[in-house]
Amino acid sequence: MGKINLEGKTVCVTGGSRGLGLEITKELAKKGCYVHVFGRSPQPFSHKNVKYYQMDLLKERPAIAIPFDIVISNLGTSVGNKGFDEMEYKEVTDMLKLNVELHLWLLKNISYKKFVFVNSILSQQGLPGYSMYCASKSFIHTLNQSLRREGKDTIIIYPYKINTSLFSEIKDIWTLDANYVAQRLLRDIENGTREDFILWIFKPITLLSKMIPMFLQDILSRFLERVFYITKRKSE
């Protein structure tokens, strides 16, 4: 993939009203992009190159005829450190709708040249208390691989915990600044990077973890739970 200049590109950003999506929008505007932003909260800031659509895409599915150069699918939610048996069925389906189904709707209903998935490092490993989150992000991980091998122009990033309201129950160890992740994502797009693990150390860790026996993976998972989680699951 060759390098591209973002100036003048028409970009769609979902989840752009706060957190990482907001930082991505601000950085795109600085680059001279024409940004169409979808978010549930009121418009957080104004810019001559930014058009904001306040709507819940889980409830509204507008007809979008704009031919985008780039779609940045920044979608995801979590119910926190909660075991599968503790989750209500509606919590399961709501998470799948946002973490999986809405990505699919964008892929099938919007015109684009390049599609960017904002995923998670937890797509690489199942963790206790995050069964549905890990599973939904793993779906996007393998979907991206398949789409790329079918010839689609895709990019995917796997950030660790970002300094937003999501995952407040996980300790602030190596917590990433949202603006840093946004700038890095834009560099990935400009440089034609196919995938990016943020922090980079997680890529060799995830590769090595898949090479060890399952019982050792389970021990490692329990160790990570003790080290990183602030809250314990109620079932424990």
From TrEMBL:
<keyword id="KW-0521">NADP</keyword>
<dbReference type="GO" id="GO:0005789">
    <property type="term" value="C:endoplasmic reticulum membrane"/>
</dbReference>
<dbReference type="GO" id="GO:0047560">
    <property type="term" value="F:3-dehydrosphinganine reductase activity"/>
</dbReference>
<dbReference type="InterPro" id="IPR002347">
    <property type="entry name" value="SDR_fam"/>
</dbReference>
<dbReference type="GO" id="GO:0030148">
    <property type="term" value="P:sphingolipid biosynthetic process"/>
</dbReference>
<dbReference type="InterPro" id="IPR036291">
    <property type="entry name" value="NAD(P)-bd_dom_sf"/>
</dbReference>
<dbReference type="GO" id="GO:0006666">
    <property type="term" value="P:3-keto-sphinganine metabolic process"/>
</dbReference>
<protein>
    <submittedName>
        <fullName>Short chain oxidoreductase</fullName>
    </submittedName>
</protein>
<dbReference type="InterPro" id="IPR020904">
    <property type="entry name" value="Sc_DH/Rdtase_CS"/>
</dbReference>
<dbReference type="Pfam" id="PF00106">
    <property type="entry name" value="adh_short"/>
</dbReference>
